[in-house]
Amino acid sequence: MPRIEDSPWAISVAQVASRAGLSKAVDADFPAPSGIGDEVIGVKEGADVHVSGSFDSIVDGLIFTARISAPVHAECTRCLKPIVKDWTTSVTAFFPYEDKREAASAGEVDIVAGEEESEDTYPLLSNGAFADIEALLRDTLVEELPLQPLCREDCRGLCSQCGVDLNENPKHHHEVTDIRFAGLADLKAQLEREQQ
Ligand SMILES: [Zn+2]
Ligand SMILES: [Zn+2]
Fold this sequence. Notes:
Layout: E1 10-12, H1 14-17, E2 23-31, E3 48-58, E4 61-75, E5 82-96, H2 98-106, H3 110-116, E6 124-125, E7 130-132, H4 134-144, H5 179-195
Protein name: DNA-binding protein
Pfam families: YceD
Keywords: DNA-binding
């Protein structure tokens, strides 16, 4: 079994987990976990994800607050050009002390413990010695992936008829032969023939 301290996402928090009111700063790059998005839009596994924040101990666990920056690759929704951009997001998560959770699940406060369980809560490992932020990074980044990424706000997109990039060819247009005018032209020709 792999040891938790060998995980690239394990952060030693033993110093602050001992009592309330302590703080441990985190300012480092972590590899992007797998499973963030897909080929079209996502964060490549192993890419540098910068995490800057802190673990702050309270009575029943650690509060983790951080800013997370990750290189997201995507495709412009309008012109399909590839985009690589650093996306930054803030996260707040709770790492409750294990013994508190065990006590809760064994005792009569079951329901309260169930209510406290949320997606922003992650377990501490090795008796509170380590916080593993792999799942936290994945959850946070998956949630933050842009749904409709644009290469720029005013991207003109592609010509709907021939696919030419309208950003590079702003004057591009097609001669439109309107079917109504085609009908009029026929009528005109007919009238001219009758007049002769
Ligand atoms: Zn675009
Ligand atoms: Zn066109």
